[in-house]
Each structure stands twice: as C-alpha cells, then as structure tokens.
Amino acid sequence: MFRILNKSRIPLFLHKKSNHIFTVWQHIVLLVLRQYENKSYRMFSEWLVEAYYLRMSLQLSHIPHYTTLQKFAARINGTILAKILSSFILLLNYVNSLFIGIDSSGFKVSNASEYYTDQAKLRKKYLKLSLSADLLSQIICTVKIRRAHTRHDNIDFQPLVIRTSEVSSTNISNCS
After folding, report:
1. CA distance readout (Å), 110 to 78, 101, 104, 124
2. What is the pLDDT of residues 17-49, one digit of tens each?
3. How many angstroms from the chain centroid is the CA of residue 136?
4. Which of 79, 80, 167, 171 has the fewest Cβ atoms nearer than 10 Å?
5. Is 38 exposed, middle or buried (0-12, 13-18, 19+ CB in 10 A)?
6. How many helices, marked H, and strands, marked E, lie in the chain?
7. Whole-angstrom distance, CA of residue 128 vs CA of residue 130
C-alpha cells in the first residue's frame, strides 16, 4: 500500500501546519484496514490495541482516537482517491486487457428517519457514486462522486470514459 501511495505522489501531510502526529499515508492504510476488517471506527481503535505488529509496521507512535479516523475520512477528497486508484492500475499493468463497465449508485447523506424527513418536509440529500471498472479482473479504474438529487447517470458517463482512457494511456506510455 505504501508503494502505491508513493507512486501516486500523495504527500505525507496535507498542510504544512498540521500537527504531524499521523501521516496521510497512515490514515489511508488504517481506513483501508478498517473497511477490510468490517469494523466500526470505535471497534477498530480498540482492535488496534491488540495489533502490535501492525502498529510497528505502520510506525504508529500511539493509537489514533476513533474520531481522528472519522474526521480524516470526512476530510479526504475524491482527487486523492482517484490518484490512488490510477496508480494501483499502473502498478498492476492491467491496461492491455481492460474491458470497462460503468455503473452508478446513490446513497443517503443523513441518518434521519423517513418519518422525520417527511414530517419536517426536509429535502432528502443524496450522494451519487459513479465508477468505471474492469469487468474481467473486477478492479475499479476511476470514481466520480457528486451530490445529486434525482438526476440520471448519463452526466457522469463521458467524464468517466475520459478519465479511464487517461489512466490507460498513462500506463501504456509508462510501459514503453
């Protein structure tokens, strides 16, 4: 994972005035592990107490509070995610055999109940996730995240195709 983050040129710290306790790389790896372990933020922080060798390999001086990971997950933007995904594809050299499919899905932003939103006449907020993936190896190539109310997926089709072709052309130029 560190090799992918290095190849994608993700900086160790997003701001020069950050407190420098945890690096961006450590946060990203911890979030990936949390997702892989299928744990909540609180349970993952408690699990890290037991994972001594993991902490040593990540060079964690101490265990992050669960809200630290929550805040970083909320703060990270889509461009960093796109950089990581494209460098992962470049590292694996899958471009010669890409068979791309595009799909979208919508998610609710708030956790408010349907009864409350209907009674208070609040506008329901949605997040639209569109992605292109290689169908043969099931690897995600590009991602587009946007706030959407009720719009169709055709808006995201052309930008996803353009980004996927940029990733594949970058990989072809790096291979030769």
Report:
1. 19, 29, 19, 8
2. 777 788 888 888 898 889 889 999 999 999 998
3. 21
4. 79
5. exposed
6. 8, 3
7. 6
> Which amino acid is it at 66?
Y
What amino acid occupies position 83? K
Stretch (H or E) spanning 119 = helix 114-119
* Distance from C-alpha of 176 to C-alpha of 173, rounded to nearest angstrom: 6
Residue 88 token pair: 């992962």
160, 130 Cβ separation under 8 angstroms: yes
Sign of CA dihedral 168, 136, 2, 14: positive
Q: Residue 82 is encoded by which pair of tokens?
A: 């796109």
Name the residue among 24, 164, 18, 36 with its Cα closest to residue 90.
164
Name the residue type at position 76. Answer: I
Per-chain mean pLDDT for the chain: 78
Contact 83, 9 (CB under 8 A): yes
